């Protein structure tokens, strides 16, 4: 689990990032979870955009993505979800 200080740090780090995944009409599926897990391994921190056409609410999408990828939910801001998972090979982010 992340501390409040670590979440603040990660929110600041994620601020300049653009969402690299979009959750739309198909909602969350296994293929998407696998792709996001692979991207988290490469980047550690990423944003996912929830489109208006998605039938699930953004909290449910965030819960499923973080559970499926075994990552930490940093924040939900607007329709954007920020996820963090420490990388095994490509560790770039040093948490406070």
Automatic annotation (TrEMBL):
It holds the Pfam family CRS1_YhbY. Residues 1-96 form the CRM domain. SMART domains: CRS1_YhbY. InterPro entries: RNA-binding_CRM (IPR001890), RNA-binding_domain (IPR051925), RNA-binding_YhbY (IPR017924), YhbY-like_sf (IPR035920). The keyword Disulfide bond does not apply. PROSITE patterns: CRM (PS51295). Keywords: RNA-binding. The keyword Cell membrane does not apply. Gene3D superfamilies: YhbY-like (3.30.110.60). This is RNA-binding protein.
């Amino acid at each position: 689990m992340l501390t409040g200080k670590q979440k603040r740090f990660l929110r600041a780090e994620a601020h300049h990032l653009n969402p690299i995944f979009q959750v739309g009409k198909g909602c969350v599926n296994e293929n998407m979870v696998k792709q996001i897990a692979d991207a988290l391994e490469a980047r550690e921190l990423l944003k996912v955009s929830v489109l208006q056409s998605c039938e699930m609410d953004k909290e449910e999408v965030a819960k499923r993505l973080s559970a499926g990828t075994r990552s930490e939910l940093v924040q939900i801001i607007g329709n954007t979800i920020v996820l963090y998972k420490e990388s095994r090979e490509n560790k770039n982010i040093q948490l406070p």
